Fold this sequence. Notes:
By secondary structure, the protein is α+β, with helices and mostly antiparallel strands. Among the domains are: 2-126, Alpha-Beta Complex (Nucleoside Triphosphate Pyrophosphohydrolase), CATH 3.90.79.10; 242-331, no CATH class. The chain has twelve helices and eight strands. It has helices at residues 44-56, 115-126, 145-156, 161-172, 175-185, 190-206, 208-221, 228-239, 248-263, 269-285, 290-299, 306-323, and strands at 2-10, 15-20, 31-32, 35-37, 61-65, 69-72, 77-86, 99-104. Strands 1, 4, 5, 6 and 7 form a five-stranded mixed β-sheet that branches. A three-stranded antiparallel β-sheet has the order 3-2-8, with no helix packed on it. The longest helix is centred in the C-terminal third of the chain and has 18 residues, at 306-323. The protein is globular.
Amino acid sequence: MIKVACAIIRNEENEVLVVQRGEKSDHPFKWEFPGGKVNEGETEEECIIREIREELSIDIVICGRMAGVEYDYGVKHIHLIPFVCDTLDELPLLSEHIAFRWIPSNELSSIDYSEADIIVADNYAQADIEPDKGYVVIPESDQSTAIDKELMDMVNNTMGAKEIEWIAESAIGNSTILKKLLDYSFSGDKKLAFHASWALTKVCDRYPEIIHPYISGIIDKLNLIDNESTQRSFMRIISLTDITLISTKQHGILTDHCFSALKSGFSAIAIKAYSMEILYKLAVIYPELVNELSATISMLHGEGSAGIRARGHIVLKKLAEISNKPHQHEH
């Protein structure tokens, strides 16, 4: 029997990611939950995180584990272990599949799956995996090492978007937690940094003015962040920021950083998408950027992701509108 792990990956709209197999696969053109074979010496959890990074180039947070499913396909007998996961990434970069779709949870039964995945979809429809926990409560005045470790462990061991929301809610009313989340975001522990920066995006979504005093410091450190997940979270925060409220020095740093991300063959799709949005906002202020940005986006037409091409078309249209307006920027 072959042990296989799969991921039921949810986005922030509680839609679930399904991927389609190619013509030459074991199950041509069937849809499935992404995953793969558990290697010798590897835990099921390690397997699913590795497989999702290899197949989709996205990060996930494991929220729960469902009952395994055994299925005999004749040519192979598998034990499929499903994990329910959350992600911030909505534009996977496919390496083994030919298509992906985000499906509302109540429509999962309408998909043409491989047989074992049909059972997983049915089981998920009946599952209740949300954790039942409360807000993080840390006294504003308490800066002790014990409290710091308690919060760090809580952030590091977060089990999904709901808990991230609770941590963000706590940070909104407590500057101590907010500052610690910023510190954790630059940690060498990539999992801790990912979770902390994700929580900060939730804070920004609700109260961007709380994050604004820290934006300059984030921008200054962008080039020092080698954690792609943190980089993506911070780029999302900056893309939601009123660019006119930051200094011209920060504008220059952002311009260089975003163009480098767009031209790099290694940047994640989400980072490229946020870079386009940030550069568009800068081009509104500095119309001389329009031609370079338009040319750079046009070069991305060969990008494998339909999502990045679609976003590029939207930005190109908005850039054309800038080009047709009189330039009023004063140097």
